[in-house]
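Help wanted!
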Amino acid sequence: MKIAPLHPWNLDYASARRLQTDLAAKVRQEPFPGPVNTVVGVDCAFSRDKKRIAAVVVVLRLPDFELIERADCVLPVTFPYIPGLLSYREAPVCLAAIEKLKTTPDVFLIDGQGIAHPRRLGLASHLGLFLGRPTIGCAKSRLIGDYDDPPAARGSSSPLKDGEEIIGTVLRTKTAVKPLFISPGHLCRLDDALRITLACCTRYRLPEPARLAHHLVTRLKAKL
DNA sequence: GCGACAG
DNA sequence: ATCTTGTCGC
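Answered by r_m:
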């Protein structure tokens, strides 16, 4: 799919933060245009010497989770890991891999935060602006926000709040297992994000697209 | 100064 | 993210 380059990625930290604040104003939370037939999973891994980063993207069809298409890309690492600036480290490879897809998926499940971010522009939201397609942030841990531990049953949840503002949901995707932190990326609302994420979780903590992408990128990493 | 901190 | 053995539990 075609991706219009919104801006360069090689910025200094101060510029990177300012850009996030500017871009966050463009993020929109809207109800889904139509049905969700295809869901994407993306995951990254690093070479052993930590000099290269790899990304794998998979497109699964619902409701049977059949693999429709996959693509990958490997690039040199150009930005350090800094909490709050993850996009500048991982977005470039993700976009390069996604750009190789022939199909245009209905929604993207991203391993990271959506608007549950200090400046409301986590990796999922940032990627969403480049893709112009709905994205959902599915993080395995918290970046910001306060919450109460949700009940142990699968499907239980509790709001993730930054002061009085609800920025996401802490969702139990598997009974008695550590929850996931869900937040809207772009062109998606929290209720739809929850519904779609849960629909992709079968018997494991992570959504199927994310699990498959993680499995494949780990296999790719071994060959670097 | 101290603690927190997506992947 | 990455390193890394055994171990507890369904």
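OP: Thanks! One thing I noticed: Chain A has a mean pLDDT of 97.
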